[in-house]
Amino acid sequence: MTRQLRAIAGPGAVVAGLHRWIDGHDPHVQAAVWLLLAHEVWPRRADFVAACVNHSPDGGWWIDFRAARIAFDNGRFDTASSTELAVLDLAITLGTDRFRFRAMGPGNARAVATAVAHAVGADR
Asked: In the prediction, which pLDDT does 52 show?
């Protein structure tokens, strides 16, 4: 996608396009994009969109999670708050399937989900 198309599209178009993109996608990508959309910060930040959100001529939008990781690791988003960075880091980790959740059996998946819920206090 060209930078010109990115500049023309507003945050609403990006958000709507990402909602459409995750329909029928792999669960780890759905989870990553859902997290970013629920948090509401990253799809509206111009630096994030410029670094790793793509737009195709047919109107589709998608996140290049590998490009997001490179930008993140190179400090491109360092002006964000620590919470914003933590959310983005987790979303990138999910989007790239770093922990191989796709290959994980249901018992281990439940254990991971339980551990994360406990870590954030959601099980109290």
From this structure: 96
